[in-house]
């Protein structure tokens, strides 16, 4: 059996949380294969368990930052608009990959694209995170109408998630 983890590459918190979860699941079920798709550095996942397979994949734009503490909201908006323009192709690409890997489960932290792809591929999904991108970005939107279609798409994708924790 194989579980696929889709992990945001924004910061290292998502990666370290999911690496620990994947390693613990493999400890409890040694036959479980785990493939992580993320643009976070592979070593963040494999240091927990060298048997975890990692594939590079950009699954969300995250937040563009001016430095370690300040967000660049105009650049973030532009990145999410560009990402949304390629949404259907990206969701189909990820759904194809889930089918190729014969995924039994998708676990996401917390790219909305993950749950859209899982639904398209007919793979059960679970989300694990302390926030969602629609929640973070809605606060930053400040009434800017260009955020509306992005937030709507992300909320619709999260609604397709089987379990969200």
Structure description:
With 165 residues, the protein is of the alpha/beta class. The protein has helices spanning 13-28, 43-46, 73-85, 87-100, 112-121, 133-141, 148-159, and strands at residues 2-7, 33-38, 53-56, 105-109, 125-127, 163-164. The protein has a 6-stranded parallel sheet, with helices on both faces. The longest helix has 16 residues, at 13-28. The protein is globular, with a radius of gyration of 15 Å. 36% of the residues are buried.
Secondary-structure map:
Layout: E1 2-7, H1 13-28, E2 33-38, H2 43-46, E3 53-56, H3 73-85, H4 87-100, E4 105-109, H5 112-121, E5 125-127, H6 133-141, H7 148-159, E6 163-164
Parallel strand pairs: 1-2, 1-4, 2-3, 4-5, 5-6
Helix pairs in contact: 4-5, 5-7, 6-7
The dominant shape is globular
Number of strands: 6
- Oligomeric nature of the chains: single chain
List the helices and strands in order. EHEHEHHEHEHHE
Key structural traits:
single chain; 165 residues; alpha/beta; six-stranded parallel β-sheet; globular
């Amino acid at each position: 059996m194989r579980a696929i983890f889709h992990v945001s590459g924004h910061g290292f918190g998502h990666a370290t949380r999911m690496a620990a979860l994947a390693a613990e699941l493999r400890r409890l079920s040694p036959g479980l294969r785990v493939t992580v798709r993320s643009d976070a550095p592979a070593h963040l996942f494999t240091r927990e368990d060298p048997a975890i397979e990692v594939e590079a994949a950009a699954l969300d734009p995250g937040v563009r930052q001016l430095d370690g503490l300040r967000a660049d909201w105009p650049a973030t908006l532009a990145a999410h608009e560009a990402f949304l323009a390629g949404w259907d192709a990206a969701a189909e690409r990820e759904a194809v990959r889930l089918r190729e890997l014969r995924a039994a489960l998708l676990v996401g932290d917390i790219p909305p694209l993950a749950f859209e792809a899982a639904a398209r591929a007919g793979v059960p999904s679970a989300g694990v995170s302390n926030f969602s991108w629609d929640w973070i970005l809605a606060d930053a939107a400040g009434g800017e109408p260009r955020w509306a279609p992005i937030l709507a798409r992300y909320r619709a994708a999260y609604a397709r998630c089987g379990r969200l924790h």
